[in-house]
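go over my protein:
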Amino acid sequence: MIELSQGGNAAVAGDAVRVALTLPAEADVSAYLLRGDGRVRGDADMLFYNQPADPAGAVRLDVATRTFAVTPSRLDPAIERIVFCVTVDRGTVAALDGASITAGEVVYRPRLGGATEAAMMLGELYRRAGQWKFRAVGQGFDGGLAPLARSFGIEVAEPVAAPPPPPPPPPPVRLSKVTLDKPRQTVSLAKPTGEIVINLNWSRGKGGWGRSGAVDLDLGCLFELDDGWKGVIQALGGTFGNFDAEPWIALSADDRSGDSTSGETMRVNGRRWDRIRRILVFALIYEGVPNWQATDGVVTVKVPGEQDIEVRMTEGRNDRRLCAVAMLENVGDRFQAMRLVDYHQGQRKLDEAYRWGLRWTAGSKD
């Protein structure tokens, strides 16, 4: 059994995938068959207790066991994702703490104890380069089933008591994360006051290159402090940084095997944010032939009290082994993140592109 953390993914094998939701309390489960634009083709693409199968029989729900039987070969080629969700009528999904979702030999156990939403996307099956994979999502929605369904293009009628009082304006759907998926897209957050966590995760599958055959990514960054000091933090050369002293940034680990489901993590001391001017986050294929499509890599930035920021390395340049992922900047003491996702032949070329001005020499992790 492969256990995933949030954002992790793994391939699923065969033409019969069993997706089971195990819940410790009463709740409704649903699934949505989505095109590449994240929308359904029509109402028939929403599966729940009153509509347990799609017309082609590609996805069938056993309501009693909360289990979906998926036959990918029966799916319309236009369907690229199947999202599996849970909703509660009263309260929040925090009542479901201890829940899990299993897809074949893959399991994800979300942490729901502090959740404030009434609906959540637990996981999804998605097609990548002709292969189906499962991703641990853990994304919440305020408002329950209706706003969840609307986000996929389905209108859900909600009963209104008679005579109906003037309805208040519906609350906006609040995603539990912000995905930066457009060139130079930027998000600005309040000044951080605690630990900022930057996580790099990638596919658990085998990429077919390197000495072990496993996809291996390294997380690193260029930094600049308020006094002009510039440097690099990376496993290469053993420059892991320092969380409690300058530069207030530390790389937690170097996962050279790619077997860790938590990927690699870098911590930033948000209490010292006034001392940090900017951080350029990058991902590096350290060894072997670059194959960005095989990594399916994602960087998640977690700022205390704010929505997570997610950046996916979706384009890929297989002639270049380093990806500049995001620029984190101190703008008026606020936290600003900008999506970069451009590719370079190494750290020296990255430095030249962003005019960092460091002196580079050859290094090794061994």
Q: What stands out?
A: Confidence is low (pLDDT under 50) at residues 206-212. The radius of gyration is 22 Å. The first helix runs from residue 145 to 151. The CA atoms of residues 3 and 34 lie 25 Å apart.
